[in-house]
């Protein structure tokens, strides 16, 4: 058996997400704890966020014989700027990337008037090659829903889909909030821009990842959640994200 573990982090406190990305990546930080505490030698992440992007509901998988409650306590006791708050037991052949949906939230300051109507055009199955940083993966992706809500003087943009490619969400946000683009593109896929405008990473949060037939058991750690909320405040993310986005840290 293996463990799926839900966790959050303050993206600006790390040198990136993927292991080997600088001296203090999210994956390297977690792997270091797993190995030093003899919990496991491996981990598989469900999503790799861009540098400076935060999360309140990312997931990783690790194989271990240690009781899950003990694993959770050790991870929280030996980490900074990371919060591990839920787990589920799964079979060893489970693939954490094969999720039902991922939900991201972007807190946008001073959106242009056409933003909400423009961003809805990105729902559905499309080739996002003009709206991502290309790698070896297919740029054909599906966004199941995009919702906009005014929250505390900001626009909360919630985007859901099963998978996303590199800088896809930030490129969509940058395009839809660009004044020079708004009057020239009735169909952003038939008439794409010549260059991408990538929105800043700090207001983007990986809010949650859900799976079919996986039930997570929550283990709150109040002192850790308060500490992380203070870290978010100190890194000025709270100027751009609302209180709802840190409720996972404060439960």
What's the quick description here?
By secondary structure, this protein is α+β, with helices and mostly antiparallel strands.
What would you say this structure looks like, in words?
- It contains six helices and ten strands, in the order βαββαββαβββαββαα.
- The chain has helices spanning 26-36, 68-77, 115-119, 168-176, 222-234, 247-250; strands at residues 2-9, 44-45, 54-63, 82-90, 101-108, 124-127, 140-151, 154-161, 204-210, 217-218.
- The two termini are 28 Å apart.
- Helices cover 21% and strands 28% of the residues.
- Residues 235-251 have low confidence and may be disordered.
- The protein has two domains: 2-98 and 210-250, 2-Layer Sandwich (Alpha-Beta Plaits), CATH 3.30.70; 110-202, Alpha-Beta Plaits, CATH 3.30.70.
- By secondary structure, the protein is an alpha+beta fold.
Strand content bin: 25-35%
Rg, please?
Answer: 18 Å
Query: Share of helix among residues?
Result: 10-25%
The CATH superfamily of the largest domain is known as: Pseudouridine synthase I, catalytic domain, N-terminal subdomain
Give the overall average pLDDT: 86
Biggest pleated-sheet summary:
10 strands, mixed
Structural class: alpha+beta
Write the CATH fold name of the largest domain: Alpha-Beta Plaits
Give unreliable regions as ranges.
235-251
Q: Helix segment count?
A: 6
CATH domain class name of the largest domain: Alpha Beta
Number of strands: 10
Count of folded domains: 2
The CATH architecture of the largest domain: 2-Layer Sandwich
> Alpha-carbon distance between the termini?
28 Å
Query: Given the C-alpha coordinates, what overall shape results?
Result: globular
Spell the H/E element sequence. EHEEHEEHEEEHEEHH
């Amino acid at each position: 058996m293996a463990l799926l573990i839900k966790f959050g982090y303050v993206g600006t406190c790390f040198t990136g997400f993927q292991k080997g990305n600088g001296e203090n990546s999210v994956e390297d930080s977690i792997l270091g704890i797993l190995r030093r505490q003899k919990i496991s030698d491996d981990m598989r992440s469900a999503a790799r966020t861009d540098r400076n992007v935060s999360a309140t509901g990312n997931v990783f998988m690790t194989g271990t014989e240690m009781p899950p409650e003990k694993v959770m306590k050790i991870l929280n006791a030996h980490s900074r700027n990371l919060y591990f708050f839920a787990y589920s037991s799964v079979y060893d052949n489970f693939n954490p990337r094969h999720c039902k949906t991922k939900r991201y939230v972007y807190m946008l300051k001073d959106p242009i008037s056409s933003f909400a109507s423009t961003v809805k055009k990105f729902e559905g199955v499309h080739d996002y090659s003009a709206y991502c940083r290309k790698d070896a993966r297919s740029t054909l992706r599906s966004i199941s829903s995009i919702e906009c809500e005014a929250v505390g003087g900001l626009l909360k943009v919630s985007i859901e889909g099963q998978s996303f490619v590199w800088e896809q969400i930030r490129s969509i946000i940058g395009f839809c909030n660009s004044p020079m683009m708004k009057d020239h593109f009735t169909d952003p896929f038939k008439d794409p821009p010549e260059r991408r405008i990538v929105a800043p990473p700090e207001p983007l949060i990986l809010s949650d990842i859900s799976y079919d037939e996986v039930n997570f058991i929550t283990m709150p750690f109040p002192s850790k959640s308060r500490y992380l909320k203070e870290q978010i405040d100190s890194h000025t993310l709270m100027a751009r994200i609302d209180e709802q986005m840190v409720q996972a840290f404060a439960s």
